[in-house]
Input
Amino acid sequence: MTMPKDRTLFATGLIIVYAMVIGFTDNYVRVIADQAGLWQFHLTRSLMAMTLLALAAPMFGLRLRPVNLRAVVARSGIHGVAMVVYFGALAFLPVAIVAAGLFTAPIFVLLISRLAYGHAIGAVRVLAVAIGFLGVILVLGPEALSGASIAAILPVAAGALYALGNIATREWCPKESAETLVAGFFVALGLFGAIGMAALALWPVEVAPGPDGFLQRGPVWPSTTFLFWTFIQAAGSLLGVGMMIRAYQIVDAARVSVLEYIILPASALWSWMLWGETLDSLAILGMGLIVAAGMIIALRSRATAAA
Output
């Protein structure tokens, strides 16, 4: 049976599952941060994810060998750094706010495309960038604007790096399979984790207890809690990313990029259900502006492509 070319409803369901899975697993990074360090988490999660991917490859006929190794390594390194920053911020900030910072990526994609590749951006997209920037200011709040909290800036830095990685996906890796890029991503994170663990083992620093010591904590004996939630993270990441990639395969990319913003309310919902956390009215308004900016950019891209 031939699959219809456009299955928007099915893709919407896939993206909802993706958003709910990632929103749930990312909320438990604070539990992981209480047990071990960021670098041990990345190495352990990558080993688990690559084991699962290696088991799945022969069953589903996945192609893991890269077409352009240098391009995949460069792209993986950029996305890997973005995720190191992202997960570092999760130890200090609510998931919804960190996710909002990451979803500034479409704004940075436009800016980088214009500055680095000379791609033209029209008045509508400039307006979208301005709206999104205002949203970022509202989400981060006065604490970040006053320079009092470096942690509050981290999600936006992750968004900028994630945008650069997305541009690399399009410009450098057009012939690579989705599973190749996922594998490269986890290998890069695993290497970063191993380097961080080795550095902190050789040059240990004073570590604060609990999540406050997430970034500086060196190797520790893994607890059952750490291994369980790290495995949930690894499996959830593979499942969620697989759902997202499948959605992009069956529906126009501009539509899916709009649907991806479901992860913002999904993260906020899980934070409220699991921890009783709520966002203030300015942060909610800021998230809405970021979503609006992303939708304008995506819909404008679709209209331009159709013209």
In short: Residues 8-306 form one domain. Confidence is low (pLDDT under 50) at residues 1-5.
